[in-house]
Amino acid sequence: MSLNNRTTDGPGAVPEATLFRQAQVGCRDSLNALMARHDGLVHTVVRRQVLGDLPFDEAMHVGRIGLWRAVLGFDPSRGLAFSTYAWPCIKHRVWRAVKAHPRFHSSSEINEAFSPLQCQALGLLPQAAEPSQVLKAATVHRTLHDLVRRLSPRLRYVVAARYGLNGHSPAFYRQIGAALGLCGERARQLHTEALVWLRHPAHSYTLRSLLDRHTLADYEAADALAQQWLRRKGGRYG
Fold it and tell me: Is the pLDDT of residue 132 over 70?
């Protein structure tokens, strides 16, 4: 696939949404065009980052890896500006390099990624998943936490406490309920409700795409579960 020598600016330019689609199916010209167009974003992120002993050139290199990952994972149809999507991808990649310098490929990468067990518990990763399946997508960690932050405050607390996302050990339902002034069974119900919301295709599309869990069967099952839950709840989450 090729751009056939067409420019990406001016009259007759290829729309950027088209460039993203072409890049994501293997068009090198489209990928290069997008990388060049958004390279300034990498410069901005790196200049604002505390680099410690990490050389600027190396920070730019890993930042461009983050940009590349963002280009391949971005969905223009969702209405989000690419810079908004790519910024955390680049920043996270650079920060990992800063923390690991001079040994970039260190075991700390596994600790910083969202645990495969946590992804499995959310129903977004097969039970046989290896850590490498999570680490292959530089945006998984940020995307999943962003998704959890979209929950209502109470549901967000339940999920964070249940899976240890708040920096503490995973909590039991009775502990979560006590913190919220509820019984353990109600905490369990809220946890189930949060998982229904998180798994719904309308909310988890980006994360499912990163984890290759976005087949029609996956979506139909998640949507059916959500509709069943909403009927029981009268159309409300939280």
Answer: no
**Looking at domain 113-233, which of 1.10.760.10, 1.10.10.10, 1.10.3720.10, 1.10.260.40 is its CATH number?**
1.10.10.10
User: Residue 33: CB partners within 8 Å, gap ≥ 6?
Assistant: 3, 8, 14, 19
Phi, psi of 210 (to 5 degrees): -65, -30
CA distance 222 to 196: 7
Domain ranges of the chain: 38-110, 113-233
Q: Can you tell me the distance from the alpha carbon of 58 to that of 81, in angstroms, rounded to the nearest whole number?
A: 27
Query: Could you read off the pLDDT of 13-31 as tens digits, one per residue?
Result: 678 899 999 999 988 889 8
Confirm whether pTM is higher than 0.70.
Answer: no
The DSSP-derived string for 125-171 is S-TT--HHHHHTSTTHHHHHHHHHHTS-HHHHHHHHHHHTTTSSPPP
